[in-house]
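Inverse folding, one chain.
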């Protein structure tokens, strides 16, 4: 693997020679040393993307041919699945079985955008004048800055790179500085498949330096960002100066509403999955359990018992069911989050501390259930981004909906009930971008993903996920030009 930047069709070392060590969060082992871009490197990448876009070398390629490259990308990822999955697990500490599932989902995403690349043929508009041919055509936006987080590094990247390329754009990709490797592998694949130089560029490095020009440089037309709320606000403010298109996929504090008539075992199992898969490092994690009062004691007792039994371990530990947090700094953040809840009066039913023994080599935090909370508390309002679930109770449908909507976020939510009418009523009243009924967590490449409220705006996946990377242009053709005499001379 090159472990360098990829700019203008060439693997390129950072101009000022900076590097960064990548350690596996499961055990602290050194994974690799990679180049660390400066602002100047990123500007060079943006300029290469601009030149490539303006030359038409990719945007003028027939859309079906662009789609074929995405289909070939999917095939290459499937072929090298184990290598990709290991790179993802070594960077993130995520269990290898989860990384393998991610790689399947990523290949499916490339396939999907490969299939729909030529689906947007524009439309003819009736101008009300037989001499006029008016049409709407869709064109690529231009140079796209694609900025991604560390929790699902290549998945979040695929959701951006695939539609950006399908639509004919050029891009500069900046993965999280903590998890660069699958982005490097992806660029290797695109390079091998003959993506023209400058169309896809990769910069590695910290947000404040390597990332900074991506939201300020005048040659960037669109910023698509997945990450934290504070960073998203900052990027949006920066992008305002040059009026860039912006798409933000931010955090969530996602309600999982369980009614007394729900299938108890399925709801319980999914409450565990929602909260603790990938140690809760999931933007749509079910971190806010809202359960009907009549079943709450039994449901929460079982949740606590099962959470305590979850086995933690590294990517290749076959007994492990979930893994570490990404870094010591992130574990400190989760620790402070839980402590703030306790200081406000919440009760920790299980977890609330770091992993011990063998787990001390990595950044493990035990699955944590917190009750005796109310909506005014920071543990209920803020995203914890760790294996932490809060429990609230309700007695009426209206109360459940009010609780489930009562945060600044609106990414995803679930409702569990066997009453179909009630589930549909609640699905329509929840202010979240994805609603699961009697399930938790699935997403589909053909279904839009994104947030309401401060979980962001713009959509990834689905036809709208492609439309984000297109501009509509109206072409009005008068086939019988004539004098209007508006300014007729006397
Ligand atoms: P983060 O905001 O710290 O970083 C995300 C990316 O932004 C990284 O690549 C980082 O280097 C970059 N960055 C930071 N400052 C920057 C700047 N000034 N200019 C340009 N780039 C900059 O987020 P994170 O900690 O990596 O990821 C966790 C967050 O991501 C959580 O809040 C989670 O909910 C969110 N997330 C959301 C979704 C979604 O679909 N809505 C999916 C995954 C993760």
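Residues assigned per position:
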């Amino acid at each position: 693997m090159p472990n360098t930047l990829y700019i203008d069709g060439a693997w390129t070392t950072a101009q000022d020679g900076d590097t960064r060590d990548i350690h596996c969060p499961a055990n602290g082992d050194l994974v690799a040393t990679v180049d660390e871009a400066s602002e100047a490197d990123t500007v060079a990448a943006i300029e290469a993307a601009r030149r490539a876009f303006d030359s038409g070398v990719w945007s003028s390629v027939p859309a079906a041919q662009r789609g074929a490259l995405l289909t070939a990308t999917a095939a290459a990822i499937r072929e090298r699945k184990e290598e990709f999955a290991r790179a993802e697990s070594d960077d993130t500490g995520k269990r290898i079985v989860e990384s393998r599932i991610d790689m399947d989902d990523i290949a499916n995403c490339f396939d999907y955008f490969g299939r729909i690349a030529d689906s947007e043929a524009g439309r003819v508009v009736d101008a009300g004048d037989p001499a006029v041919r008016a049409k709407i055509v869709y064109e690529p936006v231009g140079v796209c800055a694609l900025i991604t987080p560390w929790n699902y590094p290549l998945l979040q990247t695929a959701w951006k790179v695939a539609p950006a390329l399908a639509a004919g754009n050029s891009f500069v990709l900046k993965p999280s500085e903590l998890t660069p490797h699958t982005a490097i592998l992806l660029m290797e694949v695109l390079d091998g498949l003959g993506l023209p130089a400058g169309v896809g560029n990769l910069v590695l490095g910290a947000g404040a330096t390597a990332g900074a020009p991506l939201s300020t440089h005048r040659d960037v037309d669109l910023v698509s960002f997945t990450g934290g709320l504070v960073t998203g606000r900052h990027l949006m403010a920066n992008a305002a100066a040059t009026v860039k298109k912006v798409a933000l996929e931010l955090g969530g504090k996602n309600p999982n509403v369980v009614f007394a008539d729900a299938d108890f075992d399925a709801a319980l199992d999914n409450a565990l999955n929602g909260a603790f898969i990938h140690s809760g490092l999931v933007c749509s994690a079910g971190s806010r359990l809202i359960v009907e009062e009549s079943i709450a004691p039994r449901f929460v007792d079982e949740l606590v018992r099962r959470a305590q039994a979850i086995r933690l371990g590294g990517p290749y530990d076959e007994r492990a069911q979930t893994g570490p947090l990404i870094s010591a700094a992130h574990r400190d953040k989760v620790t402070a989050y839980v402590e703030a809840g306790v200081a406000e009066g919440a009760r920790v039913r299980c977890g609330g501390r770091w992993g011990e023994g063998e787990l001390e080599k990595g950044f493990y935090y035990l699955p944590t259930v917190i009750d005796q909370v109310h909506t005014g508390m920071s543990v209920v309002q803020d995203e914890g981004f760790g294996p932490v679930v809060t429990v609230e109770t309700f007695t009426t449908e209206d109360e459940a909906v009010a609780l489930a909507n009562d945060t600044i976020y609106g990414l995803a939510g679930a409702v569990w009930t066997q009453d179909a009418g009630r589930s549909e009523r609640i699905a329509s009243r929840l202010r979240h971008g994805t609603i699961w009924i009697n399930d938790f967590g699935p997403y589909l490449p053909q279904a839009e993903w994104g947030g309401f409220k401060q979980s962001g705006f713009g959509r990834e996946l689905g036809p709208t996920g492609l439309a984000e990377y297109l501009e509509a242009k109206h072409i009005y053709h008068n086939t019988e030009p004539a004098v209007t005499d508006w300014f007729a001379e006397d």
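The chain has a mean pLDDT of 98. Residues 3 and 150 are 17 Å apart (CA to CA).
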